[in-house]
# Entry
Amino acid sequence: MSDSAYNEMLRGVQPIGLSGRVSGAGGLVVTVSDFPVPVGAGCRILRGGVVGAAGVVGVESADSAAGPGATAQPGIAARVIGFAEDQTLVMPLGPLAGICRGDRVLCVSTEQVLPVGTAMLGRVLNGLGEPMDGRGPLAAETRMPLWPGAVSPLSRGRIDQPLATGVRAIDGLLTVGRGQRMGIFSGSGVGKSVLLGMIARYAASDVNVIALVGERGREVREFLEKDLGPEGLARSVVIVSTSDEPPLVRVQAAALACAAAEFFRDRGKHVLLLMDSLTRLAMAQRQIGLVAGEPPAGKGYTPSVFNLLPELLERCGPAADGSITGFYTVLAESDDLNDPISDAVRSVTDGHIALSRELANRGQYPAIDALESVSRVMLDVTSGVHQSSARQVRRALALYAEIDELIRIGAYQSGASAEHDAAVAAMPRIRAFLSQSMNEHWPLERTEAALGELASLCRPRRSRGAGAARSTGVSPVSRMGVSPMQTLSEDQTFTSRTNANETATPYVGHGRDAHATHGRDARATATSRREP
# Structure
C-alpha cells in the first residue's frame, strides 16, 4: 500500500480514546453525557456495557458508514448530529431497541469516508456502502470523503458538449450538456422512475451512479430488472436506502452516490448521476433537523434542508478530464410544482423537466410537458439549425395550447389563422415525436434530423419551402429519401405508403383522424398545383 493510502487511513483515526455514557433516549435520538466530539463524528453505542474490540479506537467500521473493508466492531453504529446544553445528541444508524441508560458510547472516527474502486461497477450497495446483492465484498482502491469542501467556481469548466440521453423529447427540445444538473418534477405515478431507467440505459455516459433514496422496498428490484436492465446495471453503481431505514442512512446514501461519482470523474470518466428522489432526501433531513432542535420553516422543512440541497447539487459539473451530469427527481406533493423543495431545486439546477399527469392520462410516455420544461445550457451545446427547429416546434405547441379548449368543444374554425392551422395539422406528429417506448433508443443525430422535418411541418403553409417541395406537398427532407420521421415505430402512429411512381409521403393517425388529416393534405396539394 502506498504512503498516500496510509495517510488517508490515518487522517480519520482518533488518537485519543473518547467515550461517554448514555443519559437518555427518545424518538430517533440518544443523548450522551461527557462526550466531547465534533458534529458528524462516527461512534458506537455498546449495549449492556460490552467493550470488546471496540475499546481500540481506529478507522470507522463498515456498518458505521465508513464503507466496506473495515474491521467489524460490536454495538450500534451512530453519528453525532448536534448538542443540547451539556448533552451530545447521537442518532443511531439502526433501531434504538436495547439501548440502556449508562451504556458506553465510543468515538471511532471524526471523518466520514467511503472506500471506492472500479469493482463497484455492476454492484448494488446499501446506504452504509455495504454490498447487498450477495456477490461478496468489494475491493477498495482508495477512500473518498463523503462531505468534501466546496469546489471553487473558477475551477469549473464551461459546459459545451451535448450529452445524448437516447430520449427524443429531451435530446430534441431540452438538450442536455455534459456536467449539467437537471431536475425531473412530477407528482406520484407519472413515470419518473421509468424515465430515469431509460436515461440510465441509453445515455452516452461512461459510468452511471444511481441513488434510490427513500424508495419503496418493492420497487427496488423492479427498477433494477425492468427499468434499468442488465445492460444498464453492468455500467452502473446502484446505492439503495429504502423508506423504512433511519433518516441518517437515507441522507448518507445520497452522499455516498456523490462520492462514488467523484471517484470515477477524477479518473477521466463522464459520469451520469441519477438520484430518486430529492424530496424524500429532504424529508429525511427534516427529521434529523427537527430532533436536533432546528426551527421548522415552510411545510415543516428546517434550515438544514435548504443548506443540504445545494451542497449536494453543486458537486456535479465538468472537470479537467471527466464530468458529472446529474438528473434529480422531485416528487411534487399534490402535483404542486411550486412547493418549497421544488422551488429550492429549480433555483440551483441548470434546467428542469416537468412531467404532466394530464399527458400521462392521454397515454403519452414519457409525459414531458415541453412548454413547462427548459434546459439552460441548450444554446451552448446545440447548433443554430437545431435551436431554430426546437423553437418552431415549441411555438407550435404554444399555439395549439391557445386554442385547445376551442378544439375540445368544437368551436375552432380553420382558416382564421395560418399559424394555428399549421399547429393543429402538425400536432399528431408532434405528439408521436414526444412519445417513446421504454425499449426504444434514438441516437442524437437521428433525433436532430427528425426534429428538422417536424419543424418544417409546423410552419404556416404560405412559408413552407419552394419549388418541388411546394408543388408536391412533400418536405425537402422527405424528398431526399426515407425520412427519419418515417422510421418511428408503428405503435406511435407513424406509417408510410409508397408506390413505384410517387415519392414516399408520411401520414399520421388512425381511423377518422387519419382520413381527416389525409383529406386536408390532399386538398392542400390540389390547391398548390392550381397556383401559378
In short: The first helix runs from residue 3 to 11. Confidence is low (pLDDT under 50) at residues 50-71, 463-482, 489-532.
